[in-house]
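Quick review question:
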């Protein structure tokens, strides 16, 4: 039906750049969709030491305080521990930021990082295409 056209990420991105932003809302489904990538956020992923619960105590207040401060500033949207379903001990954490610079600032100021609770981290760009209204 469509012939032998190959659709690549580059061709989709080029098309989207030429198209005016459009929002399609569906009241039944309760979500919106946009062809614009204006909904970019940044995911900060942490990996924790295996004995995080035993060692985080002295640093927890500073870690949570920094997150709370950035939430109040509007640069951190949410965050919390991650791991296997039904976990008793988290293997890491995930935070959502509005700007890459805010995610970097969090890492630089987080006592979990400077005191070895975090063994690795990454910051990824997340382009939101669908979201609940």
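Suggested answer, residue by residue:
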């Amino acid at each position: 039906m469509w012939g032998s056209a190959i659709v690549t990420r580059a061709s989709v991105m080029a098309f989207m750049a030429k198209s005016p932003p459009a929002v399609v809302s569906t009241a039944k489904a309760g979500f919106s969709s946009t062809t614009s990538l204006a909904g970019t956020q940044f995911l900060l992923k942490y990996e924790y030491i295996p004995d995080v619960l035993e060692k985080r105590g002295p640093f927890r207040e500073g870690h949570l305080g920094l997150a709370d401060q950035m939430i109040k500033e509007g640069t951190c949207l949410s965050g919390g521990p991650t791991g296997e379903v039904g976990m008793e001990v988290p293997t890491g954490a995930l935070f959502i930021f509005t700007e890459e610079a805010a995610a970097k600032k969090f890492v630089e100021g987080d006592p979990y990082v400077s005191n070895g609770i975090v063994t690795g981290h990454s910051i990824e760009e997340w382009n939101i295409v669908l979201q609940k209204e």
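Why it works: Residues 46 and 56 are 14 Å apart (CA to CA). Confidence is low (pLDDT under 50) at residues 1-28, 33-37.
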